[in-house]
Each structure stands twice: as C-alpha cells, then as structure tokens.
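Subject: sequence -> structure tokens, single chain

Hey, anyone have a minute? Need the predicted structure for the following. Not urgent.
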Amino acid sequence: MPVVIPSSVQVSVADGVVTAKGPKGQLQEKLHPLVRAEVKDGKVWLSADLAAAREASAVYGMSRARVNNMVRGVNEGFSRVLDVVGLGFRAEVAGPKLTLSLGKSHPVIFTASPGVTLSVDAKKTQVTVSGADKMQVGETAAKIRELRKPEPYKGTGIRYHGEHVRKKAGKTAAGAGAAAGGAKK
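Reply:
Had a minute. Here:
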C-alpha cells in the first residue's frame, strides 16, 4: 500500500533515510535494514524482504505508518487538545513555556520541546499541543497530562478533550448505606 505524496510535500530517499519537506517543516525517518523505500509516480513505495526474517512484516507495517504520519505531518500537522478541569485550575502560555495553576502551592511550569507549539484558549481551560511530528505531539500531551492526572472522586485534573473520567463513589456514599443497615439491627 503506497503512501500518497501531496503536491505541497517533497519526499526523498537516500541511504535508508526518508526525508519529507512541507509547509509545516521537515522530518526524517531512518528505516529498518529489512525495509526499502522508493519514490515513484508521486507515491512512496515501501517493501520488505519477508523471507529474510520473521519480524519483517511487522517492521514493514510500522515503517509504512511512520512514513505516512511524517508526510501527513509536514503537510497538515497534528494536534491534541487537553482540558484543565478544576476550581481555580488554569493555564497560560508564554512562548515555549506553559504555566499551570493546578491547586498546588506553586505554579507548575512546563517547557515544550522544539517543534511543538502550545496554545491556550480564552477561558484558559483548554491547552492545544500542535506540531508536525505525531509522536512528539502525543508525547508532549502525555507529559502535560501527567502533571495532574484526572482524579476519580471529583474529576479534577488534566484530561484529553472528550476523555470520559469514571467517577468513584466517595466514603460518604458507601458509609451511608452501611450506617442505615447497621441502625436496623
């Protein structure tokens, strides 16, 4: 299955390294020795020597997906949206630094790696992580989420947009049923 190259993207293959240049930047991917790539007719064709090793099929599939993400990333880019949920929880961005108020005694400062752009909405409760490299965008979003994971009792913390946090019943809900049952005896 070939990777289609959009008109605004240039792809080249040299010494087992695939390079893609586009409006969002430039990315490179070093291929596994079992995988070969060539650019032909506006498409990137990848192939693997399936007889050489058992893992060649899996390595081929991963390489094809990574080259596809690379071509898509330099053309369109990727983004992840995080929601900051909680009373007094907010986010502010200044350049590559994200300052978060997460209910701690001090503000938490997160510095984004090069190639990743951070932005905050007007309400200061939604952080958008964007960039050309899908893996780097996802990793940065996961690191920000780790600063204050969603808490299961109140639901406060940092979560992916659209993520459902399963809430647990607190001690009062569990204790109320036991107290009522114990009073009847």
